[in-house]
Design brief:
The protein is built from 9 helices and 13 strands. The chain is 37% helix and 27% strand. The protein is an alpha/beta fold and 218 residues long. The strands form 3 sheets. Strands 3-2-1-4-5-6 form a 6-stranded parallel sheet, with helices on both faces. The chain folds into 2 domains: 3-121, Rossmann fold; 131-214, Regulator of K+ conductance, C-terminal domain (Alpha-Beta Plaits, 2-Layer Sandwich).
């Protein structure tokens, strides 16, 4: 099983760590604030949490960070995030994903070895705009030039019908890979007899053209 370390437990880092932990991943949370780490432990948001200064390479080595597969650096300040990224790179972490506050910050991180740069404010801006333009499109993640993974509210025309009845792949060019029913957990690997109900959230793989068509469904 992959091991993840999340450095910087602000709102963004906490969200990443908690999401990974809820998906049954091994997650280590690191922050230099004892108060923040204690709060993470009290809320049982991750499997393990440690107070440490991640800009200190010796401190990271003592923790055993070099044994982790993926590191998330969720520090907004430019200098600390660069130092931490350099430390992780030198330790041989295979994948380093770093939060950046500006494009220049992102370029610097890429040059020193960050594998992926994330711009949370830019991402949230797009998400808010999409939600305003189309309340039925909850979330999306683009994973190629043409295709995306999206969460959509089940349109009324889908309610009380099974997947086999809807024949969604042929009629709508949608592949449903899972759904959420109310406050229940995500349900993957759906059977053809799965019935779509009012309030269901569908996780689909499709293209941008189809997404536009889905917006018109009632």
């Amino acid at each position: 099983m992959k091991q993840y370390v999340v450095i910087g437990m602000g709102r963004f880092g906490t969200s990443i760590a908690e999401t990974l932990y809820k998906a049954n991943k091994e997650v280590l949370a690191i922050d230099e604030s004892e108060e923040i780490i204690q709060d993470v432990i009290n809320k049982e948001l991750v499997s393990e949490a440690i107070v440490a200064d991640a800009t200190d390479d010796m401190g990271l080595k003592n923790i055993g960070i070099d044994g982790f597969d993926v590191a998330f650096v969720c520090i907004g300040e430019i200098e600390p995030s660069i130092m931490i990224t350099l430390n992780l790179k030198e330790m041989g972490i295979k994948k380093i994903i770093v939060k950046a506050t500006t494009k220049r910050h992102g370029k610097l991180l890429a040059k020193i070895g960050a594998n992926e740069i994330i711009y949370p404010e830019e991402y949230m801006g797009r998400r808010v705009a999409l939600a305003e333009m189309d309340p039925n499109l909850i979330e999306h993640f683009r994973f190629s030039k043409d295709f995306l993974l999206a969460e959509i509210k089940a349109p009324e025309s889908f309610w009380n019908k099974s997947l086999i009845e809807l024949d969604i792949r042929r009629k709508y060019n949608l592949n449903i890979v899972g759904l959420k029913k109310g406050k229940k957990n995500f349900i993957p690997n759906l059977s053809p007899d799965t019935v779509i109900e009012k309030g269901d959230i569908l996780l689909v793989i499709t293209d941008y053209k189809t997404t536009e068509e889905i917006k018109k469904l009632k």
